[in-house]
Amino acid sequence: MKKKLLNSMLFAFVAFASCESFAGFDEGKSAFMARDFATALKEFQPLANSGDKQAQHILGMMYDEGQGVKQDYVQAAAWYKKAGTQGHQDAQYNLGVMYAQAQGLEQNDIESAKWFQKAASQGHILSQFALGRLYTVGRGVKADATSANHWYRKAAEQSHYKAQLALGKNYLDGNGVKKDVKVAESWIRKSAEQGHHKAEYELGLLYRDGIAVKKDAKEAYMWFELAVKQEHVGAKQAADALAKTMKAEEIAAAKLAASSWHAKLPANANPQAH
Question: For the chain, what is the domain count?
C-alpha cells in the first residue's frame, strides 16, 4: 500500500477549482505550484487551524513529504486524523497506510482497517482495494474471502487493475465466489488491457490452456511477451516453453502483435492512484 501524496495535492487543487474560492487557498495553491512551499504552508496553516478538512489534509501531506517543513510523520498523522475525522477520504486512506506501516503512529492493524473502511464506504478506490487485501490475508479483520471479493468488486468496477485481477483469479479458483471461468476471464482481461503484467501473464495462461477462451498459442505468446517486457519471470519461462511448440512464423506474428499493442487505459486513469 502506498500513500498518494503529490497527486492527491493536485487533485485537491482541482477539486477546489470548482468551488467558491476563499481567502488563503488560492494563494496557497499558487505558491505550492510554484514550489514555494514555505509560502504555501503559511497560507494553508490558518485554514487548517480553523478546521478546514481540505487544508488539514494538504498540511498532512506537506509534513508527510517534508515540503516547506521538516518531514514529520507524527505531525502528518495528526493532520490526517483531523481531516479524516471530518470525512476526508484521502486523509482516511493515508491514516490507514500509516497505521499499517507504523509511520508516525504505533502499528495497529485494527485501526488501519477501520480507516480504510471509512474511506472505502465513501467509494475511495484505493481503500476498497486495500480493504479487500486485508480481508484476504486476515490483517486487522477476520479473513473472509466473500468480504474480500465484495471490496475487490467495488474497486474493480472503478477500473482498479489490481482489484480486477484479484477478483478474476478468485472467480477462476472459486475462492469466496462460485467458480465461473467466463467471469474470471472477463476481469483478468480488463486488468491485462490496462497493461498489468501479472494479468497479462494470467491471460496468456488462459489462451495457452484454452480456459474460457479458444486455445490459441499465438495469442498466449503475445500476452506472455507483453508481461516479459515488464520483467515478469514466470511469463518468460512460459513463453520459452510455448515457443518450442510453435512455428517460427507464429512466434514472429505474436511478437509483432505485442510490439504494436497499446494498453487501453480508462479515460480518468491515474497510475499513482492504483
Answer: 1
| 8 Å CB contact between 187 and 220 | no
Cβ partners under 8 Å of residue 274, min gap 6: 125, 126, 129, 160, 161, 162
**Phi/psi of residue 123, nearest 5 degrees:** 95, 10
CATH number of the domain enclosing 197: 1.25.40.10
- Residue 214 neighbours by CB under 8 Å, 6+ apart: none
- Of the candidates 273, 147, 122, 169, which has an alpha carbon nearest to the alpha carbon of residue 131? 147
| Contact indicator for 24, 47 with CB cutoff of 8 Å | yes
Flag whether 241 is in a domain: yes
Enter the C-alpha cell of residue 115: 480507516
Whether 252 maps to a domain, the answer reads yes
Domain extent for 191 = 161-266
Q: Are 25 and 57 spatial neighbours (Cβ–Cβ below 8 Å)?
A: no
- Looking at 102-216, list the stretches that DSSP marks H as alpha helix, in order from N- to C-terminal side: 109-120, 125-137, 145-156, 161-173, 181-192, 197-209
Q: How far is CA 96 from the centre of its chain?
A: 14
Instruction: Kindly report, residue by residue over 91-143, the tens digit of the pLDDT.
Output: 999 999 999 999 999 999 999 999 999 999 999 999 999 999 999 999 999 99
DSSP 19: S
User: Would residue 11 count as lying in a domain?
Assistant: no
Closest among 46, 74, 65, 54 to 3, alpha carbons compared: 65
The model's pTM: 0.89
Give me the amino acid identity at 130.
A
Distances (CA, A) of 221 to 71, 81, 203, 225: 47, 48, 10, 6
Residue 113 placed within a domain? no
